[in-house]
Backbone:
């Protein structure tokens, strides 16, 4: 009764807003919202959450799910009589952003480019130690949405890679690491949050509402691409999921019952809570019944003079429960879901207080200065060393002709480009800067560094040790118009530092590097026959100068965080042998990329209420899958990255673990976090031996790609997909055998009819190599005879 009443309410709301959408891409109503069960080891914590809940009155229950005023980016208010000191939520995926004396870590993109599970885990530990040290219970990271459907997506760098397997591994490892320190991780943004433009609704000049962009995603693509890494983190026990601003199949992320009740809490068995992105809550009833558990930043004011701001939760929730529109059992489940991870991670057992400098830092960000200065707790420990290591491990050597790198005490070098020198617009990234190195992108995913080692300062330091002469020009406009600073003598090597910025709220419009990079390169290469290019970038760039023979080396150094200059000098001079691999594809031409961002700005449809329809018609074919499918030769392929050494592979073995593998996973009584546990069982065992055949110690990444038997899978299946990788450090002449297990989900496709992961019959091809197009050993295996 209640639900049918709700359904008709919802229909009215939809019709009013013109959200009834097309007949195809709509989100099926999926109610009720599943209750937490404690499955997966959270039973004892759930019992404690129940005991806590039993002591709350209705007002307090509403407080527990509604953000309040506080020094943190988000706050759940304390309840003093229960000795509950509240919850502090802080940005973001690469650092505790709103803090003094904290570290600026490498971005998720850089972590992905290391392909190093151990380093990714250590990064998670170190970041979480800083959140904890500052008294932040909940870290608003890591990011797996955007996944990277669009090459120019403005937030791709906050996440890892457009490959769901690599992203899932990196994100799950980050979640495990962070939560091992007792900090709750938040996986975001759920789901289909692939572009920034029109991510939120807006109001036209005449006052009508223009709905946010809707990501229209078919069921198979949802499972095999966008939901895949979320599933990995649910399996890893992530405490929180942040729902996204934009719509999915016409329905806003935070009230989409299909994605939240159906996919997340139902199919994946998620036991934690769904938190709204800041201001992404657009309703009371639809969100609560649609699976949202916490409204952020909420509205409650606890200052003596303050009054609550309007909120869809808070007092509205109390009223809706009191008159029976929302069952109190649903509110109880919301509170249980919020408190169970708190107890599970022992946050009731003494947690640091919120750092007293937090509010002052928050004010300083908007140039409201507070005196006297409040001393901050220094949480940086020895993390600078790890940051430096990850910065170089996430640097990809794309080209190195004539072994121009590593440098060996050159007599005379020149440094060019606006990415080389010290930052000139402050250490808390507040936007793009025309001159100054780029260590991270902007927005909620950035950091407030206490220092940034710029490439130029690190190179000058190294040059002083080596007795090298350094000439430099760092103003790209000057270089672009041919002012190379009156070079004399001509340098042995020209090092060019180029950058590409992006920040939350906007997408990129250029594929090339920013600030006249093409003109800059043309001027430098016309003079310098040994030009080494280093990019600091939020992601994919085209490189129209890459084949110029005067460009002898290219390094994609991504976003390395505060030790940027140290990390790149380690690579340039060979103190560290490069081992990063591209976590995306670099195309020859912009037009080689598919799935452009939907941008109606400036068109008549821009203010058409429901025109922002983004149909994910490319399905599974993003990034390298698209290049393979369309037969396009990339400039630098997914997985590519050179070393100062050479490596070879031998003795690939591939075998089915069982003689009889059923196509569908066995049914399960209880869904545990991650979904049916059978999906995670190993069904194929592969191993291969890798050798360092050069004369320098170094690491490489063994990569496994799987091709499904094309005759027995639905159309739209990619030619091959990454399904295993391992980074291996080897001395010259050393060999090591690597195990690459494939789990049931890895070798299945999502069958939309049976709503199940199925293993196809016939022969799988398994290729192992050092990139997606350098496949040196092949094998086949069948699990089900055709
Ligand atoms: C979106 O619509 C497509 C097409 O009908 C359907 O396959 C898919 O399951 C829907 N997904 C959601 C989350 O509503
Ligand atoms: C959740 O638990 C309550 C009891 O607390 C029950 O009334 C409700 O039906 C349950 N909901 C679901 C979806 O199982
Ligand atoms: C609920 O508890 C709060 C104290 O936490 C108190 O201020 C409020 O009056 C209580 N409400 C009811 C209805 O008992
Ligand atoms: C309830 O929500 C409506 C819509 O946002 C808002 O106008 C109103 O102020 C809210 N009430 C409370 C008590 O927050
Ligand atoms: C319940 O309360 C809400 C909020 O005050 C109100 O909008 C709604 O009309 C009420 N519903 C019923 C059935 O009384
Ligand atoms: C209150 O909580 C703190 C930890 O936050 C704990 O150390 C203390 O023992 C608790 N006090 C009571 C009375 O439970
Ligand atoms: C979107 O379109 C407008 C108008 O053409 C343009 O100014 C803007 O740069 C575009 N944005 C992006 C990110 O491409
Ligand atoms: C490109 O260089 C020209 C001068 O050659 C300058 O006017 C322009 O501002 C530069 N553009 C950027 C984006 O730096
Ligand atoms: C390469 O550099 C040399 C100067 O050393 C110059 O003469 C030549 O034109 C350059 N070639 C290209 C393709 O820029
Ligand atoms: C690189 O090697 C090629 C052929 O071995 C040679 O022609 C070219 O001059 C070399 N370039 C540099 C910068 O040494
Ligand atoms: C409001 O303006 C938009 C375009 O800006 C137009 O499409 C729409 O019809 C207008 N609505 C009303 C009610 O005037
Ligand atoms: C392995 O297979 C791939 C195609 O899947 C092919 O490009 C490659 O040459 C093969 N390698 C060997 C060593 O046969």
Residues:
């Amino acid at each position: 009764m209640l639900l049918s009443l709700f359904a008709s309410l919802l229909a009215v709301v939809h019709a009013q807003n013109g959200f009834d959408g097309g007949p195809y891409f709509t989100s099926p109503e999926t109610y009720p919202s599943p209750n937490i069960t404690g499955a997966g080891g959270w039973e004892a914590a759930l019992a404690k959450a129940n005991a806590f809940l039993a002591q709350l009155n209705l007002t307090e229950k509403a407080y527990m799910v509604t953000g309040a005023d506080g020094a943190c980016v988000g706050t759940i208010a304390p309840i003093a009589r229960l000795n509950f000191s509240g919850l502090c939520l802080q940005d973001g995926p690469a650092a505790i952003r709103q803090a003094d004396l904290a570290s600026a870590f490498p971005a998720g993109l850089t972590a992905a480019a290391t392909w190093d599970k151990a380093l990714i885990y250590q990064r998670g530990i170190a970041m979480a130690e800083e959140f904890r040290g500052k008294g932040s219970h909940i870290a608003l990271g890591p990011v797996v949405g955007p996944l990277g459907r669009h090459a120019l997506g403005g937030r791709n760098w906050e996440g890892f890679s457009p490959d769901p397997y690599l992203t899932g591994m990196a994100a799950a490892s980050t979640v495990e690491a962070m939560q091992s320190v007792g900090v709750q991780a938040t996986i975001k943004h759920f789901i289909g949050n692939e572009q920034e433009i029109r991510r939120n609704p807006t109001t036209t000049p005449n006052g009508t509402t223009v709905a946010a962009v809707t990501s229209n995603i078919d069921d198979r693509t949802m499972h095999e691409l966008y939901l895949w890494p979320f599933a990995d983190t649910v399996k890893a026990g992530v405490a929180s999921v942040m729902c996204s601003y934009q719509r999915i199949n016409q329905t806003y992320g935070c009230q989409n019952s299909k994605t939240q009740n159906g996919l997340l809490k139902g199919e994946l068995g998620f036991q934690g809570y769904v938190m709204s992105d800041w201001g992404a809550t657009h309703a009371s009833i639809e969100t609560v019944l649609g699976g949202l558990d916490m409204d952020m930043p909420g509205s409650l004011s606890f200052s003596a003079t303050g009054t609550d701001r309007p909120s869809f939760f808070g007092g509205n929730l109390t009223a809706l429960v009191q008159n029976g529109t929302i069952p109190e059992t649903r509110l109880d489940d919301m509170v249980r879901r919020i408190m169970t991870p708190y107890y599970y991670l022992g946050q009731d057992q003494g947690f640091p207080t919120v750092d007293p400098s937090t509010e002052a830092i928050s004010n300083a960000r908007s140039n409201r200065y507070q005196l006297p200065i409040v001393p901050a707790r220094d949480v940086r420990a020895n993390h600078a060393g790890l940051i430096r290591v990850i910065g170089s491990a996430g640097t990809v050597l794309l080209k190195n002709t004539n072994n121009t790198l590593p440098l060996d005490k050159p007599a005379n070098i020149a440094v060019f480009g606006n990415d080389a020198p010290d930052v000139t617009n402050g250490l808390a990234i507040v936007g793009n800067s025309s001159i100054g190195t780029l260590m991270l992108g902007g927005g909620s995913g950035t950091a407030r560094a206490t220092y940034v080692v710029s490439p130029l300062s690190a190179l000058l330091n190294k040059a002083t040790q080596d007795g090298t002469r350094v000439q430099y020009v760092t103003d790209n406009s000057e270089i672009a118009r041919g002012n190379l600073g009156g070079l004399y003598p001509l340098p042995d090597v020209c090092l060019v530092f180029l950058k590409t910025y992006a920040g939350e709220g906007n997408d990129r419009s250029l594929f090339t590097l920013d600030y006249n990079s093409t003109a800059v390169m043309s001027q430098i290469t016309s003079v310098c026959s040994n030009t080494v290019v280093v990019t600091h970038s939020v992601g994919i760039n085209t490189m129209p100068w890459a084949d110029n023979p005067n460009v002898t080396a290219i390094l994609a150094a991504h976003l390395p965080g505060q030790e940027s200059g140290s990390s790149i000098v380690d690579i340039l001079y060979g103190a560290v042998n490069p081992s990063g691999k591209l976590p995306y594809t670099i195309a020859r031409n912009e037009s080689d990329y598919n799935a452009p961002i939907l941008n109606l700005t400036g068109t008549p449809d821009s203010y058409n209420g429901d025109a922002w329809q983004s149909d994910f018609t490319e399905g599974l074919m993003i990034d390298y899958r698209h290049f393979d499918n369309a037969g396009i030769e990339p400039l630098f392929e997914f997985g590519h990255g050179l070393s100062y050494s050479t490596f070879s592979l031998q003795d690939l073995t591939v075998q089915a673990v069982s003689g009889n593998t059923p196509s569908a996973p066995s049914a399960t009584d209880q869904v545990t976090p991650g979904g049916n546990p059978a999906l995670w069982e190993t069904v194929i065992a592969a191993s291969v031996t890798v050798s360092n055949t050069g004369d320098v110690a170094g690491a490489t990444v063994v990569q496994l790609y799987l091709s499904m038997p094309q005759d027995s899978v639905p159309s739209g299946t990619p030619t091959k997909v990454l399904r295993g990788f391992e980074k291996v450090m080897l001395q010259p002449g050393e060999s090591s055998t690597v195990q690459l297990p494939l789990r049931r989900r890895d070798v299945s496709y999502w069958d939309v009819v049976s709503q199940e992961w199925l293993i196809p019959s016939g022969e799988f091809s398994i290729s192992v190599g050092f990139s997606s197009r350098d496949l040196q050993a092949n094998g086949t295996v069948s699990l089900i005879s055709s």
